[in-house]
């Protein structure tokens, strides 16, 4: 059992939020068992914690492994499931088996979510579980272009947070009440969100994006994306970290490392990091994608927030050790 019960029953939450959380938990308790589509982001983690408390061993978290999931995110999901105390299963599939996903049109997230949730239902059936839950929250339907939500509706997936009217801000409050380490984790969209709509999603492109973003993470950046424009890497850095990226030492190092990974050109986007910059409407194609949760998608929902390493963040100002931070 989890070390933490729902603090909604105690002093840790606003009464309205506490009532919503308790209602979601109690609704889950009425089911014989649930499988939670689980990314390890904050939305799916809260659903898993509620389900674990409501149903004990009859609640299972399940993470789908594919080319669009960074290895660090899978490790994070395993860790968070252990933190909650919920049984954790993983299933493998490949979005690249679906030509419609590979084509990367405006409905890419719909095709991905349909496949991903289909694997969840198969796993639930194997385990004798009749209900699949996801982490869609009450804010998600109003956040622009979100074709993945259509798959959730079509497949009759249960969304406890949405049903209880729990917003994203309230999700984070409940996560804190459970003392979950992902309470402040940024949303994380899948790696395919780094590829502009209309450009085919390939394993080579996904791999070089994942490796490029790992480099930036290891250098201590927190808010960023590497967009793959058919061989041109467009690096987006959060505004409060942009000053570091304007240093010539960073320019030299990021060019060297990313061209070594297979990019032909490397550019820095002076507009900085923003979600959905290669997707229709700026919606689910990015951070709405993985911890908006088809498997917890969008908290993803992916850099929907997988911090690695123990390098301290530098929030600005000149750094005399900058060159050493970017090894050549």
Automatic annotation (TrEMBL):
<dbReference type="Pfam" id="PF00733">
    <property type="entry name" value="Asn_synthase"/>
</dbReference>
<protein>
    <submittedName>
        <fullName>ATP-dependent sacrificial sulfur transferase LarE</fullName>
    </submittedName>
</protein>
<dbReference type="InterPro" id="IPR005232">
    <property type="entry name" value="LarE"/>
</dbReference>
<dbReference type="GO" id="GO:0016740">
    <property type="term" value="F:transferase activity"/>
</dbReference>
<keyword id="KW-0808">Transferase</keyword>
<feature type="region of interest" description="Disordered">
    <location>
        <begin position="276"/>
        <end position="328"/>
    </location>
</feature>
<dbReference type="InterPro" id="IPR001962">
    <property type="entry name" value="Asn_synthase"/>
</dbReference>
<dbReference type="InterPro" id="IPR014729">
    <property type="entry name" value="Rossmann-like_a/b/a_fold"/>
</dbReference>
<dbReference type="InterPro" id="IPR052188">
    <property type="entry name" value="Ni-pincer_cofactor_biosynth"/>
</dbReference>
<feature type="compositionally biased region" description="Basic and acidic residues">
    <location>
        <begin position="287"/>
        <end position="303"/>
    </location>
</feature>
<feature type="domain" description="Asparagine synthetase">
    <location>
        <begin position="25"/>
        <end position="96"/>
    </location>
</feature>
